[in-house]
Write the structure tokens for this entry.
Amino acid sequence: MNRKRRFIRNAVLMTAGSAALRFSGLWFRTCICSWIGASGVGIYQLIFSIFSLGITACTSGIGLAVTRMVAEGKGSRKYLRGCLCFALTMSFAAGTALFAVSDFAAVRLIGTGGATVPLRLLAPGLPFIAVCACLKGYFFANRNILVPMIGELWEQLATIGISYLLLTRTPLPELNALMLGSTLGEAAACAYVVAAFLLAVRRHGLAENNSSNQHVLHNILHIAGPMLIGSFLRSSLFSAENLLIPAGLRKYGAGGIAALAQYGVMQGMVMPVIFFPMSFVSSVAMLLIPEIAEAAAQGHRKTVRNSAEHAFRTTLMFGFVISAILIVFADEIGRLFFGSSQAGDILRIMAPIIPLMYLDNVVDNMLKGLDQQMFSLKYNFSDSVMRVALISALVPVFGIRVYLAILYMSEIYNASLSISRLLKVTRLKVDLLGWIVFPAVTGALLYYVLTLIKKTVFYLI
């Protein structure tokens, strides 16, 4: 199978799998909302915002390091062994730290002692996440997206099934059951990915080279080190941002439950809907990393430029189409999935920024494939600093609306820097008509057509 056909096949498979994964996640989020309410969803999101620090510590850059090293033709065995040891060491350290600070984080940061046990239940899942990140990087480098895709789907199904059983068949509190279900789902996914990896090694073997352990460690840290440091700092800022939002809303005048409910609507309801369609472009963006890394390593600059140009054109077209659909049907989506009119209002406000949001995701992945991850991390870090400063200063004064304005400013700032860097590295010229004008006009026409259809249907009903 030639490279183009293989890429298309993998893109179709990964897009379908990612869409199924996000749809099941959205459905599960709907169930969670019905079980624990909007304020419970707020606490749920805050717990995971702290847990994300542990995930960042043991996974950031490590999957990319494996993918890049294998795709560029370097030996696999030593790099995989080194990456696994590095990731497991970081995961055990992060899990221990999370367990130790769980009481402080629950009471002082989240604001409820009921979050202590859920945080401790999540900590044992970090080594499973670390192993999966490394082995998935190996499969991506070998253009085998089926194993990572099935692994993620299996994790989602296991998490949903186990969580449901724990919620309905045991006396565990809701949050405890959900977090334990998440950890057991991660263990199930790790078992599958490890089994698939051992089978692949038995069939095809692993390449080896004569590089010293010091050289291997240097190459791993060259890719994973900057991403780990930058991502951890950004993840820390992201967690601080999430904790500051309900705190700021309380200062603005909302009660504790109301503040958590507003935060839960934004982060637990609206953002999953926005990110669901992104699965159709983010999966392709992930596949671009080994393709672009290999093309760049071989000096095929034209291939890199063609890939970037196609990504710009298709991502913006898709983004404008999704934006139009969500603007028209925001109210219906909010009521159907979450029974919340506020979710529909916020979704309509956020929909216009979707094209830039999706493009920023794709551009970040292409920069990683071109060994520009340090620039991407600098942009993300400065963006996070700006958001934390603005949220801490403005949300207590102006409430949730100013937070939405901050999200707009943040996305414009981050995306403009990343796009500018990619254009400079690839020496690609902007096609204003093909990339922006035509997709925007298409989205506008779709908006008017859907609005007309919606009004006609409502009139007939």
